[in-house]
Amino acid sequence: MALTFPQDWPERAPMLEAFAAALDAVDPERAVQSALSADPFEGPVTVVAIGKAAAAMARGVPGPASGVVVSDHVEPIPDGFATYLGAHPVPDESSEAAGAAAAAVIDGSDGPILFLISGGASALCELPVPGVTIIDVATVTASLLRSGADISEMNAVRKHLSQLKGGRLAERARGLPARTLVVSDVVGDRLDVIASGPTVGDPTTFGDAREVLMRYRISPPQRVATALAKGDVGELSETPEKPIPGHEAFIVANGEIAAAAAVRSALSSGVPARVATTELSGDAVAEVQQLLGSANAPGMTFVAGETTVEVTGGGTGGRNQHAALAAAIELAERDLGLIFGALATDGVDGPTDGAGAVVDAGTIVRGAAAGLDARHHLADHDSHPFLEASGDLLRIGPSGTNVGDLWVVWQQ
Fold first, then answer.
1. Which of 9, 71, 144, 322 lies at 20 to 30 Å from 234 by C-alpha?
2. What is the CA angle 92-97-100, rounded to 5?
3. Could you give the C-alpha distances from 234 to 207, 238, 344, in angstroms and in order?
4. 3-state secondary structure (DSSP) of residue 92
């Protein structure tokens, strides 16, 4: 899988090789094959695969199997499967159509069901609770994405507006033999958080969902407010708190596996390397500044996880590009002699064609030579055009996997 820059950067090859090795290590098809080889699931199996890694995960299932794949892009799928494309990161009518298709496949099954879940599923596949429209869900989701709320907070709301999330998808299996395999994009690998936990118990409540909206001063559409209020007083059924009886869920790929593979790649290139943490979280700019300030070991230091960005500007970018541009400003001002790289492992950082960026102390000068002001672009959340102009933007296209973000600081 090739990661490319707008211009040639041969001296950055060891970093790109490490990123590529990380992606290869969390290949969803091989992860599912390995899990099912170790613990076979008797067929014929009905498969419901949802998320950015859905197609690849479905290809890892041995026959006989059939079912539905819900993703944000088209990939080859096995015979007997149908593909539905949903929207991400904000759901739309296509997500609702995908949700209806997934529900219908489960409702029509009379045998074992295998759920294959990966990041992005929360937006890609949706069926709103009665009285709430998909437009209502989209409006709330967009507000949450801009608010700075973390993934657990966002999902507390989304679960309680959905007929599929928070264990409800597994409830539809009606006690049939069922199993879930998960590619995790969530810090800490909490099964109730990944993809809004469609097949596991949910510790959050309608009251929690209402509290999140109040905390971030989000005024939801009236139908959403009404539904949450009804749920809070028991007029709508709560999501199942306990695990679904007879249903087991397993993580088959995550950021820890990706980071470890990146380290092995760097070491094989003769570059000292280590993993500092696989629990990266918090504000993207604050985290990257702390990471750069604490860099004191030669070689590459990797961190994995997922940060947040409170979007106040009207530009184009993603959290990894935003962090990279903030890092570039820091590197230019402090002359730290470091290179910083940020990669969205799904290959799609925000609503852009970039996967992230690799920056150094010269990034700001290169952007300025194109007539762009780094601080203005950072304030306007417009990192993508700046990094394109500076030559530091990373592209890969949809990778077919999703285990969160991988950052690296390289002290040469």
1. 144
2. 130
3. 11, 7, 40
4. coil
Burial of 378 (0-12, 13-18, 19+ CB in 10 A): buried
Identify each DSSP E strand in 62-144 by its residue range. 65-71, 81-85, 113-118
Q: Taking the complete model, does pTM exceed 0.90, yes or no?
A: no
- Are 27-253 and 255-411 in the same CATH fold? no
Give Cα separations from 199 to 139, 368, 370 (angstroms).
25, 49, 49
| Residue whose structure tokens are 């991988």 | 406
Digit-coded pLDDT (tens) for 141-155: 999 998 989 889 999
Q: What is the rounded CA–CA span in Å between residue 1 and residue 412?
A: 25
Taking only the tens place, the pLDDT of each residue in 75-127 is: 999 999 999 999 999 999 999 999 999 999 999 999 999 999 998 899 999 99
Query: Following DSSP, what letter does each residue of 374-403 receive, concatenated?
Result: HHHHHHTT-HHHHHHHHT-EEB----S---
Check residue 1 and give its pLDDT. 66
Q: Taking 70 as the threshold, does the pLDDT of residue 265 lie above it?
A: yes
| CA–CA gap between residue 252 and residue 204 (Å, rounded) | 25
Residue of 73, 78, 66, 141 lying closest to 105 (CA atoms): 66
CATH of the domain spanning 255-411: 3.40.1480.10
Residue 32's Cβ-side half-sphere holds a number of Cα atoms within 13 Å equal to 28
Q: Cβ-count burial of 11 within 10 angstroms (0-12 exposed, 13-18 middle, 19+ buried)?
A: exposed
Domain locations along the chain: 27-253, 255-411
At residue 335 the predicted structure's pLDDT band, cuts being 50, 70 and 90, is confident
Instruction: Of 344, 259, 267, 234, give the one whose Cα is nearest residue 25.
Output: 259
What does the alpha-carbon distance between residue 242 and residue 232 come to, in Å, rounded to a whole number?
18
How many Cβ atoms from other residues are within 10 Å of residue 87's Cβ?
20
Query: Which residues make Cβ contacts (< 8 Å) with residue 158, sequence separation at least 6?
Result: 122, 137, 140, 141, 144, 165, 196
Q: Mean per-residue pLDDT for 260-267?
A: 98
Radius of gyration of the chain (CA): 21
**Architecture of the 27-253 domain:** 3-Layer(aba) Sandwich (3.40)
